[in-house]
Amino acid sequence: MPDGQEFSGRTALVTGGSRGIGRAICARLAAGGARVAINYRKEQVAADAVRDEIIGAGGAAVTVAGDVSDPGQVKAMIAETESAFGPVDLLVCNAGISASGEADPLSYDTWRKVMTVNVDGVFLPVMTVKDGMLARGFGRIVCIASIAGLRARPMSVTYGTSKAAVIAFVRNISGVLAPAIRINAVAPGLIETDMIANMDPKRRDGMIGGTPMGRIGEPNEIAEAAAFLLSERASFTTGQTLVASGGRVTIP
Ligand SMILES: NC(=O)c1ccc[n+]([C@@H]2O[C@H](COP(=O)([O-])OP(=O)(O)OC[C@H]3O[C@@H](n4cnc5c(N)ncnc54)[C@H](OP(=O)(O)O)[C@@H]3O)[C@@H](O)[C@H]2O)c1
After folding, report:
1. The CATH fold of domain 11-242
2. From 159, 223, 234, 240, active-site residue
3. What is the pLDDT of residues 71-82, one digit of tens each?
4. Which of 17, 90, 123, 175 has the fewest Cβ atoms nearer than 10 Å?
């Protein structure tokens, strides 16, 4: 850390960095000194705004388009990141979708759509960066799961299953990647982003009522949890899931 910032000299790639939680993670890592590649799928204007904000604050950032569920596009976005900033040291697998807008949340089409983005979309970036990280002897990875993956929710069969898979993937692969690479998950509760913008107000109020801290979380509160796990402050932590849900879910 030549200039005292914990991510100085590091290259970070954040999937789904154009909006919501991913956007806050990009800003947080850049504030910590990382050079940040902001991945997005469709919203180029939003991704460009994140990049411009980081550069305006004196940081380094590029945008890299690509669908996390497509192996070729994942390879290309990582190659683009590396040609801009050098090898990926910090990977945040944040991109994700919910099934709530789907006509039939339990259809096979919805299942495939959610699984390919939320599960393949974590597996592919991790598998694409891991060999380089192992060869260099350094890698830090955080995957954004959800409390939906930790408990039964009849409204979230597909989404909850995909997030439970992320938690299990992190747990199972951590021993394969250690000691050079640490990989952990963050499981947020309800966070104020576009993902929950169309939620039924009664459901939203019910969730707030079930949250001991009595409110919805902010994206920067999840960014802070991710930054902690990526940093050397978490130097003996791997394979874990950190729940940030205002007390709505507690583990073990
Ligand atoms: N908000 C919550 O309450 C909550 C709670 C628990 C967990 N989470 C998880 O947190 C993560 C971020 O959620 P959010 O609320 O910030 O969502 P959001 O506001 O809807 O943003 C989603 C981000 O993911 C990107 N994305 C979606 N599909 C993609 C794909 N196939 N390839 C590449 N990028 C893709 C979007 O890119 P474009 O802008 O290009 O569309 C966008 O940047 C997700 O994994 C979500 O499941 C959210």
Report:
1. Rossmann fold (3.40.50)
2. 159
3. 999 999 999 999
4. 175
